[in-house]
């Protein structure tokens, strides 16, 4: 291991995980906001998360991030979205990097993520199944013209408007009240069902229907890497509560 060893309290579990990774060639990682907190992106439900931050609005974050609210008050949505949800300066941390390296080595087959930040792709991962969409894809609701994150960020208007048809541009992010993409769900279920090692990291496993997908795993090695307890703790074959980035950094010298 490396100089992170003394910071980690789950070393025996981490060493066992290293062995399991080396014995696997159909690994799937199922992740949530906790994998990106070490990149400076706040999660949603922890004490320091977005849902607990002070805001001067009379609406809850869940209400603002709903499709009916977007339709009614796009200017309030975009103000919250740009100030709380977008972190264009964020970069992949050791967790994103190790997962990308494991895919390149042929061991990891898919990442199923609830995140919308695109950090897995930035780290080099190819097969990333984004259950809740991505901030990097934006479309005009009228003519479906595509726009980048930079174009949305640089829009002079409070609500980005399509230059081609004057329609409202919406992020390709699944809001409350919207359905997840069927194709992404089906591909995620297939990947999880065929896995020989399931890594679950940085997620409270409380957001449905996404959290239910882990129940499709049929193998005997489920690893849960999460700082706080989850409803699935008792089902995990290995439980690691150290910060996921530090854990992946410690694993790097063993599994690559």
Radius of gyration: 19 Å
Q: How would you write the strand order of the largest sheet?
A: 3-2-1-7-8-9
Shape: elongated
Structural class: alpha/beta
Task: Tell me about the largest β-sheet.
Answer: 6 strands, parallel
Low-confidence stretches: 1-6
Amount of helix: 25-40%
Give the terminus-to-terminus CA distance.
12 Å
What is the string of SSEs from the N terminus onward? Answer: HEHHHHEHEEEHEHEEEH
- The number of E-state strands comes to 9
Count of DSSP-assigned helices: 9
Task: Give an overview of the whole structure.
This protein is an alpha/beta fold and 256 residues long. Helix content is 31%, strand content 16%. It contains nine helices and nine strands. Strand 2 (108-113), helix 6 and strand 3 form a beta-alpha-beta unit. Helix 1 crosses helix 9 (244-255) and helix 5 (94-104) packs parallel to helix 9. It is elongated. Mean pLDDT is 91; it is low at 1-6. The active site is at residue 132.
